[in-house]
Amino acid sequence: MSTTLNDAALDQLFRNARTYNRFLPQAVDDATIATLYDLLKWGPTAFNAQPARYIVLRTPEARQRLAPALSSNNREKTIAAPVTVIVAHDKRFFDQLPQQFPAYDAKPLFEANPALVETTAARNSALQGAYLILAARALGLDAGPMSGFDAATVNQEFFPDERHAVNFIVNLGYGDPATLFARSPRLSFDQAVTLL
User: Fold this and answer.
1) Which of 8, 34, 51, 58 is placed for a possible disulfide with 121 were both Cys, Cβ 3.0 to 4.6 Å?
2) How far apart are CA 131 and CA 163, in angstroms?
3) Domain that holds residue 82
4) Which whole-number Å values give the CA distances from 55 to 7, 11, 80, 168, 193, in the listed order?
Protein backbone atom coordinates (compact mmCIF):
# COMPACT_ATOMS: atom_id res chain seq x y z
CA MET A 1 0.00 0.00 0.00
CA SER A 2 2.48 2.58 -1.16
CA THR A 3 0.16 4.79 -3.18
CA THR A 4 -1.10 8.04 -1.68
CA LEU A 5 -4.76 8.73 -2.36
CA ASN A 6 -5.38 11.61 -4.72
CA ASP A 7 -6.62 14.97 -3.48
CA ALA A 8 -10.22 14.26 -4.47
CA ALA A 9 -10.28 11.15 -2.29
CA LEU A 10 -8.56 12.92 0.62
CA ASP A 11 -11.04 15.78 0.33
CA GLN A 12 -13.98 13.35 0.39
CA LEU A 13 -12.69 11.43 3.40
CA PHE A 14 -11.30 14.31 5.44
CA ARG A 15 -10.79 17.86 4.23
CA ASN A 16 -14.23 18.56 2.77
CA ALA A 17 -16.18 16.01 4.81
CA ARG A 18 -18.55 17.48 7.35
CA THR A 19 -20.72 16.32 10.23
CA TYR A 20 -24.32 16.51 9.09
CA ASN A 21 -27.38 17.10 11.24
CA ARG A 22 -29.85 17.09 8.34
CA PHE A 23 -30.06 14.85 5.32
CA LEU A 24 -31.70 14.98 1.92
CA PRO A 25 -34.85 12.86 1.52
CA GLN A 26 -32.93 10.12 -0.25
CA ALA A 27 -32.97 6.52 0.96
CA VAL A 28 -29.86 4.49 1.77
CA ASP A 29 -30.47 1.00 0.42
CA ASP A 30 -29.57 -2.28 2.09
CA ALA A 31 -26.90 -3.03 -0.51
CA THR A 32 -25.07 0.18 0.46
CA ILE A 33 -25.29 -0.75 4.13
CA ALA A 34 -23.83 -4.19 3.36
CA THR A 35 -21.02 -2.61 1.34
CA LEU A 36 -20.39 -0.20 4.20
CA TYR A 37 -19.85 -3.09 6.60
CA ASP A 38 -17.72 -4.97 4.06
CA LEU A 39 -15.35 -1.99 4.06
CA LEU A 40 -15.25 -1.09 7.73
CA LYS A 41 -14.63 -4.68 8.87
CA TRP A 42 -11.07 -4.50 7.52
CA GLY A 43 -9.98 -1.81 10.01
CA PRO A 44 -7.55 -3.11 12.64
CA THR A 45 -8.59 -4.01 16.18
CA ALA A 46 -6.59 -5.42 19.08
CA PHE A 47 -6.24 -9.21 18.76
CA ASN A 48 -8.48 -8.86 15.69
CA ALA A 49 -11.22 -8.91 18.33
CA GLN A 50 -13.80 -6.93 16.32
CA PRO A 51 -16.01 -6.23 19.37
CA ALA A 52 -18.33 -3.75 17.65
CA ARG A 53 -21.90 -4.72 16.86
CA TYR A 54 -24.22 -2.54 14.82
CA ILE A 55 -27.96 -2.10 14.96
CA VAL A 56 -29.09 -0.35 11.79
CA LEU A 57 -32.36 1.53 12.22
CA ARG A 58 -33.82 1.92 8.72
CA THR A 59 -37.41 2.94 9.42
CA PRO A 60 -39.04 5.81 11.30
CA GLU A 61 -40.65 3.22 13.58
CA ALA A 62 -37.27 1.76 14.49
CA ARG A 63 -35.85 5.22 15.17
CA GLN A 64 -38.88 6.02 17.36
CA ARG A 65 -37.72 3.20 19.66
CA LEU A 66 -34.49 5.14 20.11
CA ALA A 67 -36.15 8.56 20.55
CA PRO A 68 -36.76 8.38 24.35
CA ALA A 69 -33.03 7.89 24.93
CA LEU A 70 -31.93 10.89 22.84
CA SER A 71 -31.19 14.37 24.10
CA SER A 72 -33.63 17.01 22.91
CA ASN A 73 -31.02 18.32 20.43
CA ASN A 74 -30.62 14.89 18.83
CA ARG A 75 -34.18 13.57 18.77
CA GLU A 76 -35.72 15.35 15.77
CA LYS A 77 -32.71 14.97 13.49
CA THR A 78 -32.39 11.28 14.29
CA ILE A 79 -36.04 10.52 13.62
CA ALA A 80 -35.70 12.33 10.28
CA ALA A 81 -32.42 10.66 9.25
CA PRO A 82 -32.51 8.01 6.52
CA VAL A 83 -30.45 5.58 8.63
CA THR A 84 -29.28 5.53 12.23
CA VAL A 85 -26.61 3.10 13.42
CA ILE A 86 -26.20 2.16 17.06
CA VAL A 87 -22.54 1.27 17.48
CA ALA A 88 -22.24 -1.09 20.42
CA HIS A 89 -19.80 -3.65 21.72
CA ASP A 90 -20.14 -7.30 22.58
CA LYS A 91 -19.04 -7.92 26.17
CA ARG A 92 -18.21 -11.53 25.22
CA PHE A 93 -16.21 -10.67 22.08
CA PHE A 94 -13.41 -12.88 23.38
CA ASP A 95 -15.51 -16.01 22.77
CA GLN A 96 -14.69 -15.58 19.08
CA LEU A 97 -10.96 -15.07 19.53
CA PRO A 98 -10.02 -18.69 18.75
CA GLN A 99 -11.40 -18.15 15.23
CA GLN A 100 -10.57 -14.46 14.82
CA PHE A 101 -7.08 -14.56 16.33
CA PRO A 102 -5.53 -18.00 15.72
CA ALA A 103 -1.95 -16.83 16.40
CA TYR A 104 -2.27 -18.03 20.01
CA ASP A 105 -4.96 -18.60 22.62
CA ALA A 106 -5.77 -15.08 23.83
CA LYS A 107 -9.21 -15.93 25.18
CA PRO A 108 -7.97 -16.72 28.75
CA LEU A 109 -6.46 -13.21 28.99
CA PHE A 110 -9.95 -11.76 28.82
CA GLU A 111 -11.89 -14.44 30.69
CA ALA A 112 -9.83 -13.71 33.79
CA ASN A 113 -9.84 -9.92 33.49
CA PRO A 114 -13.18 -8.05 33.27
CA ALA A 115 -11.41 -4.67 33.29
CA LEU A 116 -9.40 -5.67 30.23
CA VAL A 117 -12.61 -6.82 28.53
CA GLU A 118 -14.26 -3.45 29.15
CA THR A 119 -11.36 -1.28 27.99
CA THR A 120 -10.65 -3.45 24.94
CA ALA A 121 -14.31 -3.55 23.92
CA ALA A 122 -14.87 0.18 24.42
CA ARG A 123 -11.66 1.29 22.71
CA ASN A 124 -11.92 -1.04 19.74
CA SER A 125 -15.64 -0.58 19.13
CA ALA A 126 -14.96 3.17 19.06
CA LEU A 127 -12.28 2.52 16.45
CA GLN A 128 -14.72 0.44 14.45
CA GLY A 129 -17.30 3.22 14.68
CA ALA A 130 -14.69 5.59 13.25
CA TYR A 131 -14.05 3.13 10.43
CA LEU A 132 -17.80 3.16 9.80
CA ILE A 133 -17.74 6.95 9.37
CA LEU A 134 -14.80 6.80 6.95
CA ALA A 135 -16.34 3.91 5.00
CA ALA A 136 -19.58 5.88 4.74
CA ARG A 137 -17.71 8.88 3.38
CA ALA A 138 -15.84 6.65 0.93
CA LEU A 139 -19.20 5.44 -0.39
CA GLY A 140 -20.53 8.98 -0.85
CA LEU A 141 -22.60 9.02 2.33
CA ASP A 142 -22.44 11.63 5.07
CA ALA A 143 -22.39 10.96 8.80
CA GLY A 144 -23.66 12.64 11.92
CA PRO A 145 -22.09 10.89 14.93
CA MET A 146 -23.40 11.77 18.37
CA SER A 147 -23.10 10.95 22.03
CA GLY A 148 -26.08 12.92 23.36
CA PHE A 149 -28.17 10.03 24.64
CA ASP A 150 -28.90 8.05 27.78
CA ALA A 151 -26.91 4.83 27.46
CA ALA A 152 -28.95 2.93 30.05
CA THR A 153 -32.15 3.61 28.10
CA VAL A 154 -30.56 2.53 24.80
CA ASN A 155 -29.20 -0.63 26.38
CA GLN A 156 -32.52 -1.49 27.99
CA GLU A 157 -34.40 -1.06 24.70
CA PHE A 158 -31.98 -2.70 22.30
CA PHE A 159 -29.79 -4.95 24.46
CA PRO A 160 -32.02 -6.37 27.20
CA ASP A 161 -29.82 -9.48 27.51
CA GLU A 162 -27.02 -7.16 28.76
CA ARG A 163 -24.46 -8.88 26.54
CA HIS A 164 -23.99 -5.73 24.47
CA ALA A 165 -23.61 -2.06 25.37
CA VAL A 166 -23.94 1.08 23.27
CA ASN A 167 -20.84 3.13 22.51
CA PHE A 168 -22.22 5.90 20.29
CA ILE A 169 -24.79 6.59 17.58
CA VAL A 170 -24.34 7.69 13.96
CA ASN A 171 -26.93 9.08 11.58
CA LEU A 172 -26.18 8.31 7.94
CA GLY A 173 -27.50 9.59 4.64
CA TYR A 174 -26.84 12.14 1.96
CA GLY A 175 -26.21 15.38 3.79
CA ASP A 176 -28.15 18.54 3.03
CA PRO A 177 -25.44 21.17 2.45
CA ALA A 178 -27.97 23.98 2.95
CA THR A 179 -28.13 23.07 6.65
CA LEU A 180 -24.40 23.25 7.38
CA PHE A 181 -22.91 25.75 9.79
CA ALA A 182 -19.56 27.39 9.16
CA ARG A 183 -16.80 24.87 9.72
CA SER A 184 -15.31 24.92 13.19
CA PRO A 185 -11.55 25.37 13.46
CA ARG A 186 -9.14 22.52 14.10
CA LEU A 187 -6.05 22.54 16.27
CA SER A 188 -2.82 23.31 14.45
CA PHE A 189 -0.03 20.76 14.14
CA ASP A 190 1.95 22.55 16.86
CA GLN A 191 -1.01 22.54 19.23
CA ALA A 192 -1.78 18.85 18.85
CA VAL A 193 1.45 17.06 17.96
CA THR A 194 4.67 16.54 19.91
CA LEU A 195 7.63 15.17 17.97
CA LEU A 196 10.20 13.38 20.12
Assistant:
1) 51
2) 23
3) 19-175
4) 33, 29, 17, 11, 35
Query: Is residue 138, in this structure, part of any structural domain at all?
Result: yes
| CATH at 162 | 3.40.109.10
Does 193 fall in a domain? no
Rounded distance between C-alpha atoms, residue 122 and residue 61, angstroms: 28
2 in any annotated domain = no
pTM of the entire predicted model: 0.95
pLDDT string in tens for the chain (196-residue length) = 679 999 999 999 999 999 999 999 999 999 999 999 999 999 999 999 999 999 999 999 999 999 999 999 999 999 999 999 999 999 999 999 999 999 999 999 999 999 999 999 999 999 999 999 999 999 999 999 999 999 999 999 999 999 999 999 999 999 999 999 999 999 999 999 999 9
Query: What is the number of domains present in the chain?
Result: 1
194 within some domain: no
The b/e string for 11-22 (b: 16+ C-beta within 10 A; e otherwise) is: ebeeeebebbbb
